[in-house]
Amino acid sequence: MPNETAVRPEPQNNAKVGEIEKDLEYTRQELGQTVEELTHRLASKARPLTYMAGALVAVAVAITATIVIRRRRA
């Protein structure tokens, strides 16, 4: 989902306070959207890694339990 943003020119050196504040608000909103999109992308990529880590922990616990049980029986 490409983000289609128009190139917005920076305020001129002689810009009024209201124009600068308006530009700052626009920049904040744009930055917020970018952070939200990046967070979504990272979360969707990290999810499979989380499942894999959980599976590896389960396997490690199962192997450890098997070793402990076998040593107690011996």
Give a written overview of the molecule.
The model has no long low-confidence stretch (mean pLDDT 85). This protein has one helix and no strands. It has one helix spanning 17-73. The longest helix has 57 residues, at 17-73. The protein is mainly α and 74 residues long.
Binned, the helix content reads: over 70%
Q: How is the main sheet built?
A: none
Tell me what portion of residues adopts beta-strand conformation: under 5%
Which residues form runs of ≥5 with pLDDT under 50? none
From the alpha carbons, calculate the radius of gyration and give it in angstroms: 26 Å
According to DSSP, the number of beta strands is 0
Alpha carbon gap, first and last residue: 60 Å
Large-scale geometry: rod-shaped
What is the count of DSSP helices, taking H or I runs of 4+ residues? 1
Mean pLDDT, rounded to whole units? 85
What's the helix-strand series? H
- Report the structural category: mainly alpha
InterPro entries: DUF3618
Keywords: Membrane, Transmembrane, Transmembrane helix
Protein name: DUF3618 domain-containing protein
Pfam family, one: DUF3618
